[in-house]
Amino acid sequence: MEPILTPFRAPRANAFAERWVRSARDECLDWTLIWGRRHLERVLRRYAIHYNLARPHRGLGLETPEAHHDPERERTGVRLRRRDVLGGLIHEYEAAA
Q: Which pLDDT tens digit goes with each residue over 37-62?
């Protein structure tokens, strides 16, 4: 990875970072009591995994940034299994075996 330097006082230059921060705050941090720095880092690390692997994104056609095509998901009548993330704050669903 390489850091990308953004222009000073350019509100649209930070759009991707601002979108992630807003999503993290709205979906996670506003609902969680943070006890300290280690707890904050653990919560944000777990939310980032959910954000990149399980959360659908509108701009990507409801796919995830690290999308994996699963033909099982396209079948109708698939049984689903729910997995709670961050103590039940977020729910992830996947096809049951």
A: 999 999 999 988 888 887 776 666 66
- Determine the Cα–Cα distance for residues 65 and 73; give it in Å rounded to an integer: 17
- Residue 64 buriedness (CB in 10 A; 0-12 / 13-18 / 19+): middle
User: Does pTM top 0.85 for this prediction?
Assistant: no
Which residues have a Cβ under 8 Å from the Cβ of 37 and sit 6 or more positions away? none
**What integer pLDDT is reported at residue 41 of this predicted model?**
94
Q: Report whether 92 contacts 83 (CB < 8 A).
A: yes
Task: Dig out the tokens for 33 from the structure.
Answer: 């009591």
pLDDT tens for each residue of 64-97:
667 665 555 555 667 778 888 888 888 877 777 6
**Coil, strand or helix: which one is 92?**
strand
